[in-house]
Every structure is written in structure tokens, then in C-alpha cells.
Specification:
The complex is a heterodimer of chains A (429) and B (155). With 429 residues, chain A is of the alpha/beta class. Chain A has two domains: 177 residues, Rossmann fold; 172 residues, Dimethylsulfoxide Reductase, domain 2 (3-Layer(aba) Sandwich), CATH 3.40.228.10. Helix content of chain A is 35%, strand content 19%. Chain A contains 17 helices and 21 strands. In chain A, strand 6, helix 3 and strand 7 form a beta-alpha-beta unit. Chain B is an alpha+beta fold and 155 residues long. Chain B has two domains: 62 residues, Orthogonal Bundle (3-methyladenine DNA Glycosylase II, Chain A, domain 3), CATH 1.10.15.40; 80 residues, 2-Layer Sandwich (Alpha-Beta Plaits). Chain B is built from seven helices and four strands. Classes of the chains: A alpha/beta (429), B alpha+beta (155). Chains A and B meet through strand 3, helix 1 and helix 7 of A and helix 5 and strand 2 of B. The complex binds iron/sulfur cluster (SF4) (4 copies). The site of one iron/sulfur cluster (SF4) has 16 residues of chain B, from helix 5.
Chain lengths: 429, 155
Amino acid sequence: MQDTVCCGCSVVCDDVAAKVTKTGIQSLGLCALGHAYYSSIRSQTRLKKAQMKAKSTSAKTIPFKKAYEEASSILSSSQRPLLIGWSNSPIEVSHLGLKLAKSLKGVYDSTASFEYGQLRQHKLVGGETGTVNLEDIRNLADFIVYWGVNPAESHHRHASRYTVFPTGEKIPEGRESRTVAVLDIRQTESMRLANHQLILEFKNGDEQFLTTLLTEIKGTTGTPPVKVGGIPAIEFLSFAKQIQEANYIAIFYGNGLLHSPHASKTLPLLSKVARVLNKKSRPCVTLPMVAYCNSIGVVTASQTDTKIPYSVDFNRQPPRPYKSVFKGLIANEFDAALIVGWDPLSMLPAPIARALEKIPLITLSTHPSLTTRESTVVIPTAVTGVETTGVVYRMDGSAVPVQPITKPPANIPTEVQVLEQLASWLAVL
Amino acid sequence: MVDKKLNPMQLYKLLPQTNCKQCGMTCMAFATRLALREVELKDCPPLHENPQYATQLATINELITPLLAAEETGVKLDDTMCTGCGNCVVVCPVDASAEPDTASGKAARSTDTVFRVENGTAKIINLEKCRRFPPDRMNCRVCEQGCYVKAIEIW
Ligand code: SF4
Ligand code: SF4
Ligand code: SF4
Ligand code: SF4
């Protein structure tokens, strides 16, 4: 078996091994999701040939050359193309995407714009310093918070590898040396591991909880209410006391907090809580539980190349931030889209997906999806990290190089190769 | 932990909770080590001497007696429920000594551990090493308590 780095989710586990056998994949250390990700390279449904289809007809197989030609002709005749996706691909692919967007005067956007990009303004990626390292959290964090996220379901190895169970420099006893709090609006599997299992009121429990917590840690005394965001005062106070006594606090938050209707209030509040704790010499870091292996890298790439973290409009030079791809789609601003390694039609809210569906789509994908089904041109690609090399940025922003363990079947190109082909076809057209 | 079964918290609640330190540690530490069978109940004098703790003493005794005599015990893992999270690998004290990196969160890669995650799910590869079996016969349950999805069953 060969050492490998898993790109199945944003944890990007680098302590695992896998091997391709005649019957499938053998692996050590990969969680169920990771193993399924590796096994997908042998899936029956894997896309192997390029496809093309006119609207409301069925797709037909075409040679790769024809696919590049078709795709580049759609892109070059487009007045306003949208280039979107990127988070499941190594950072090299993002850089190429940005270059392509520039030459096409299009809009480049990534899943970051709705995943977590907006958090930077609240300094919610990494707290005050903007840098966090999962290894530091493993070594130092004696107070772990999961808020609005259920890692048991979404990031299987997060708790065992970095946050709840492992021992570390200042964490001699592993789980026993840490206090763990899980906050959500329902009972979750992750709560099984928590000292503080806090089920917040659906309505605006998180906002109430954070407001009261902020007063508490600022030392402003008042009469605490009977319940705080749906949580009995005694439980709230015990949480508030322990978080203030901790030596190092790591707060991981997910969609429950990010996409709640109160996010515009709760996110700044969370950021303030972190700041006050830091001021009181209780180091506190905050990290969004992003989904994809390179969710962070897409922002890094865009920031490096354009100084704009996401949603970049190349219509004029220098490029400027684009208002909102969602709004742009609804307003029919785009007349073609290049989608790389993502399935927006099954992920986006229905009205936005319907707007996207209406324009010609060129999709790079490893497997069939709702999006490939609706695409004018589909180009199959190699699976990131299993069949390709590159660098991905895991959830804490650490750059992790990945190496292939096998070659893609049937001459399937990598995303880098496809984008290079498109660029050279576009130069000819 | 939300387990109803024997665990340090449960034992702690039955101890005097005075932190008198006659046992050489705090009540919580004593409870933790009692659950691991690293100390004996008689090492807590107040519990035996003060009649006000008589019921608690009886309850603790009931809780820990079966494991002293445990002839039949076992650990079962239902891999159809398992997500391969690796919590069991990392918490198992046997794994920590067999392959020290597992204690700091790394995947088990050798063939010496009790648990190893293979092809996406955990397998018990050396059941006989579990501390519940002789010669240790400890009432360890940490793997069961650490499993998100209750895939591990101990009896
Ligand atoms: S936790 Fe994520 S990165 Fe780690 S093995 Fe599972 S899918 Fe792969
Ligand atoms: S001797 Fe008993 S009461 Fe005293 S600290 Fe130890 S466990 Fe607690
Ligand atoms: S019960 Fe056995 S297998 Fe489970 S953690 Fe304890 S020693 Fe390991
Ligand atoms: S803790 Fe449970 S779910 Fe996680 S690997 Fe072990 S048996 Fe599977």
C-alpha cells in the first residue's frame, strides 16, 4: 500500500494509505467518505468520454478534440462568461481558471463566496491573527466548540485527528484533558462526545446565547435570565465559566451558524467573543468547517492573483469584485458558464439553479451529475489527489501537496490539461 | 458522556465529592482511575467509614463487582454502522501502547492494535489484546463511549 493524502473533504488526511487492486481499492485509515472517494475512480458510472448535447436532446459521445473546439467556441463567443467551481481541485487549477477568466473578460467565482468568503470581514477565519493550524489546536486546545456543525456526519476524522481525542503537547490525556461543547438546534451524534451538549432554540437561540456570553465574558454583571437561547441558565453559566478558564479555545462553526437567518448578527458577535477572550489572554481561534479539500485554496489563489478573495470581475482592468453571482444569474447577466469540479445544479437554491440551467454549460467532471446532464459540453477529468498531482489548502489554510497513486483510465485528462487545451484553442480562435 | 453504562462520571457522582485527598488525589481523578481499575474502592476511606455514604457504597460496589469476576466479556463492532471516524483507534489505550502515533490522532497502520480502519470502516484486528480480557480484566469502555454512532457494543 502507498502513502497518500485524501482529498475527500477539507480535513485532507495525510496519514493514510491506499492501493488500487484488480477488484477495487484497499485503504488504511481512510474514513468511509474517503474510501468512497478513492473507490469512485473505479465506479461503473465514471465519465470516460467527452459528451455534447443540444438543449433538451440526449447527449452524444464526441472525441476530446471536438469537445475542446466546441467549448472554446462557446466561451469565445460569450459576452459574459461565468467560470465557477474550483474547490475540489488543486490550487494550480484555480490559477489557470483565473488566467482564463482574465483573457475571456469573464467572472471568476468559487464556492467560497457562499461557503465562507464573507467571513474574512469578520476576522472569523483564524481569529485575530488570521492564521490557525490544526496541529496547534491538537497540541494546545483544551476547550473545543462545534457550533452548527456535526462533524460526525460531515468531517468524520476531524475530532479523532485534531480536536477531541488526540493527545498533544499540553494535552497529556487526550479527551480527558479537553472540554468539548457542541451547540446545535437539535440533538446530533457529535453531542455524544461533548461535556456541554447545548441545544439552542431554533428561533434565535444562537444570537441570544452569543449576546449573553459576550456580556458574561466582558464581566458586565446582570441578572441572568432563566434560559439563554433555550438553554437553562445553569448550563449556560457552566459553559461561560469554563470557556473563560481555558488555556486555548478553538471554535469550529458550520452551516448552522453561517446560513442561519441571523448570521448578520451572530457572526460579528462570535467574532467579538473571540476578540474579548484573546484580549483576556485566552487564545481563541475560530474556523469555518468548509466542505471541500481546497475550499481555502480557491481564496488563496484569487487573493494572490487579483487581491480579491472571490467573485472577481475581469470585465475591466484592473479586475474588481463582482457584486454577487447569485444575483447576476437571476438577472440573466451571464450567457455561458464553465464549471470545474462541482455540481451547482444539485447544490444551489432552485431559482438560481434554474437560471444557470438556461445558459450553455461546459462542465469538467469525474462522474455524472445533475449538472453534467444539463451541460452542452461535458469533459471527463481525473480525480483530484488520487490520479493527479497538485497542492490543496486544507481547512486551516495549510498547503498540502498531493500525489497520484494511479493513472486515470482511458486517457482521461486532468483539469490542468483541459484548461491548458482550452486556453490554446481560445488563442487560435 | 451520555452513556448510561459505567463511566467515571457515574462513579464520581457516587463518591463523597469532598476532595479530601485521603486517596492521594481528587474525587474525579479517583473516579477516573477506579473506572480504569487502577485503584481500588477501599482506597477511599470516607466512603467506608462514614455511614452517610452507605447507600452510595453499596451502589458503587454493585457497579464494579461484576467486572472483577468478569469471565465473559466482549467487544463487538458493527461495521455497517461505522463511518471510519477513527475515534476508537485513537482512544483505545492498547492501541496507544501498540502504535503510539494513534494516541496523537494518527491512523493505525500496523497490525498490532485492537482497532484499525480498513477500507473505510473500523475492524477489530486483535480482540484478545483488549484490556477487558485476562490478565487485565479492566472495565474499560472508552472505545464504546467514543463512538459517534454506537457501532461498538461491550458486554
Ligand atoms: S476525514 Fe476527510 S480527508 Fe480524512 S479520510 Fe475522511 S474524507 Fe478523507
Ligand atoms: S478519599 Fe474518597 S472522598 Fe477523599 S478525595 Fe479520594 S475519593 Fe474523594
Ligand atoms: S474496551 Fe478494550 S478495545 Fe475498547 S478501548 Fe478499552 S481496551 Fe480498547
Ligand atoms: S468509533 Fe465507531 S464509527 Fe468511529 S471508527 Fe470506531 S467503530 Fe467506527
